[in-house]
Design brief:
Number of helices: 12
CATH class: Alpha Beta
Shape: globular
CATH architecture: Alpha-Beta Barrel
Strand content: 15-25%
Number of domains: 1
Order of helices and strands: HEHEHEHEHHEHHEHHEHEH
Distance between the termini: 73 Å
Length: 265
């Protein structure tokens, strides 16, 4: 079994030339399906900062499966039990927030792999194995799972070589929001110091032979991140894009000068 997200990262024929995604924050299968239909290459199905539970995760993965978009499931924390349940629910690419060092990265990998490579518990009947119909699932599942670790603090940046070098870490995702806050630039992820720190991290992660992802709030910020070498980039989120468009439409409507002809002519 091949991992679809690894395959996506290797493609050179994408419309933007690289994989463009977003974050699914609404915890809604319908909204997630719409993101897939509009043309995003991938989306982070977020369990860290949303009320999304396992039952609704399954529904979101089912909805996305009917579109070309690929899901990346971000677990709430680097918790082995949660990871086991998410994988059994059908997730194939798992993102781990706030990974600080190589030991935490190794724990994340181990949670995603069956023995002898890891500690994932074996279930004979799960959505992950297509309810037992996937031939030799326990033998091929390890290769079918992709592990993405997030680096979000200056402390983690000092460990980036060791984190990226962990066997089984397939890509590293730089989190500019938390990183900017930890660097003293709260709410300003595009601060020059933050972007420069990310650029240095990208070079080191690439030197380890791993692709790098990140997320930006605007198309202009996406272009900046692409310029420093980020390989796959998310733009905002379903809720962020919706709120931005709603605010723009309301502003346009409320700023209109409506002239009513009361003379009859």
């Amino acid at each position: 079994m091949n991992n679809p997200f690894k395959t996506l990262l290797a493609r050179k024929d994408l419309p933007a030339g690289y994989p463009v995604g977003t974050f699914a924050m609404a915890a809604s299968p319908l909204t997630a399906e719409a993101l897939g239909c509009v043309g995003f290459d991938w989306a982070v199905v977020d369990m860290e900062h949303t009320p999304l539970d396992l039952d609704n995760l399954v529904r979101m993965l089912q909805a996305i499966a009917g579109t070309p978009m690929l899901p990346i499931t971000r677990v709430p924390w680097n918790d082995t039990v949660m990871v086991k349940r998410v994988l059994d629910a059908g997730a194939q690419t798992v993102m781990f927030p706030f990974v600080q060092n190589a030991d935490e990265a190794r724990k994340a990998v181990a949670a995603c792999k069956y023995a002898p490579q890891g500690v994932r518990g074996m279930a004979a009947m799960s959505r992950g194995s297509r309810f037992g119909t996937q031939p030799d699932y326990f033998k091929v599942a390890n290769d079918a799972v992709s592990v993405v670790v997030q680096i979000e603090t200056p402390e983690a940046l000092t460990q980036v070589d060791a984190i990226a070098g962990v066997d089984g870490v397939d890509s590293v995702f730089l989190g500019p929001g938390d990183l900017s806050g930890a660097m003293g630039h709260v709410g300003n992820p595009m601060h020059a110091d933050v972007v420069a720190a990310m650029a240095r991290a990208v070079e080191r992660i690439h030197a380890a032979g791993k692709p790098v992802g990140s997320v930006a709030g605007t198309a202009e910020a996406v272009a900046i991140y692409r310029g420093i070498g980020v390989d796959y980039i998310g733009c905002a989120s379903d809720l962020g894009l919706m709120m931005r468009q709603c605010a723009a439409v309301l502003s346009a409507i409320r700023s209109q000068q409506v002239h009513v002809n009361t003379t009859g002519y």
